[in-house]
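Chain A, query sequence.
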Amino acid sequence: MTVKDTVWSTPDAEEPAADRRQADVPGFVGRRHEIAQVRRLLATTRLLTLTGAGGVGKTRLARRVGEILPRRYRDGVRLVELATIDDEDLLAPAVAASLGIHDRTPDLEAQLIEHLADKQLLLILDNCEHLLGACARLVQQLLHDTSRLQILATSRQSLGVYGERVLPVPSLPIPQPGDGTRDIARRDAVRLFTERAATIRPGFHVDAANARAVARLARRLDGIPLAIELAAVRLRTTSVEDLVNELDERLEASALAAGEAGPGTLARHQTLWATMDWSFGLCSPGERRLWERLSMFPGGVDVETAEAVCSGQGLAREDVLDLMMGLADKSILVVAEPPGAGARHRMLETVRAYGREQLPAADAEALRERYIGHYHRLAERVRVDRVEPDQLDRMGKLKSELPNVRVALDLCFARPADAPAGLEIASQLWANWLVAGALGEGRHWLKRGLALVPGSSVTRAMGLWADGLLAHYQGDVVAADGRECLALARQLGDEGALAFAVQLAGVAALSEGDVEGGLALLEEARARHWARGDVHAVGVTLYVAALFAATMRPDRAAEYGEELVTLCEKRNAMLFRAYALYAVGMARWEQGDCQQAEARMREVTAFWGAADDRWGLPMCLEALAWTAGACGRHERAARLLGAAHLLWEAVATSPARMRYQARSHQECAERARRELGAQAFAAAFRDGTRLGLSRAVAYALEE
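Chain A, predicted structure.
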């Protein structure tokens, strides 16, 4: 899934002039009447759905509303893009991610309701039509169990939820018979065409010579924004007059094929599809093949991936770059990230849907195999549980590719023969799920894979190991015991699987309070990993040994942590080093060395803040609260506890659920409450919860 999310924060000042004037911004033309309607309806309803055909501009209108209305909502506006999600089970996680909840309890909907209970917030759900039933159920529950939440949805049809208001989004206004040149130029459909045309032909404008042709084009395209943009691209090689004539021929042919009465009677959906048929026909055979194949990528694609997955079956690898540039010139592809060596291109959802319809079944089957193979290999390349220098680059790569990885996982789990590959992908990414604070999503895929890959195999053993390790961080004791994993590894006799299974058994023993037994198992696991030459697994073993032993054997924990720091520095593995330093800091805290503990936590907080590590940051803020309290700075301790609390909520856990955090957290909170008084403690704690992520990090780093 990744879920992509866009967040508009809540500013503190008065509404900006843009909100009052509703001025156009680059890439957005017109819609003043619709924006006014949305604002009026949101004043009287909690659920408003923007409906309309594909390409009519529902998403752009919703985004524009999200840009100009945040100051109306104390807790801001959150946008959830659903176009990249095909699995209904990932709808609630996508909403959670947009709210900053990066990990999930088993009852995620209840967690969402609890989080939103007192929020004054506008939630935008974009592209609901392919998840209509799931969206309707979730929206109904959220609205029923919260009091001030409002939802703005976009969909090709209404959600059908009680109390829903529906606003059909029309096409842009088109020139009317009798309009003069000035009036034609002022119509929004023409303004959009003019703006896009000027990017193709600098200086283009509507004048007496071309006004009639432009007006005719806008009317023939029924004012549909996407159709207008696709048509404007043709000005690169033809005049407006010739463009209109070409378009007339295409639309009239489509009308006859559809059994329509004649020109001008095409429904909007047919008009858009006919326009894309026209654009498709203007593409070279290679461009058409690439358009079809790139429709597989909801998260966009870079050139390297397109070459790897889309070449073959009549498409040479060396031609892919030129063909992508050709599609970009025709506005079939748009740049999703800044141009450069790793630039990504994507398709608008309607264009992608059209491409999927054109993809021949024979090509789709071969493409499916290459797609799965590519993302299977990618999962191994981007895993961050490696003592290597490029861990942050790997995190960034997965973030961009996550929607495509979700497609690969769904494809794997759709067929029993491919399910092992899916389970391997989910297992390889266990540390990525952890660092992203997305343990719930990771376990979602692992559970699907484990259900489809029974029997005895190394793949299943490693899936059980990954699920068990993530379960430990979630506090899921039943899933975390590791007994099935250990029994299976012993049965298989595979040294690698057995080393990991012993490691998981050691973590389970430490979590149950068996210090000596747990450490003995972890020592055994480390020895097994060294014997196999797996330095990366040694690093993971040292980290979990240092972390889970900190409260019980801080001396041993410090040794493990320092050994891991040295290993990471030798290999320049900075992300892994930050986790090692955190473990050392925890051990120093337990040894009573408050100064060293604070120094380590400050260093790690600065790194994790820059890396946006959502799992590590609350742990550091928590520890810095303890050191502040130990130095008598109780107001600071309370404020840091509040800041950590907000982040703990986001990853759906708390210090109370983690053995290595629980005691110190409780002691710090009780001491601060006693020294400050209940009222002052509550006020400082509340201030901390309002800091937000970046301000919380900055506050934690203050001397």
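The longest strand covers residues 150-155. Confidence is low (pLDDT under 50) at residues 1-26, 261-265.
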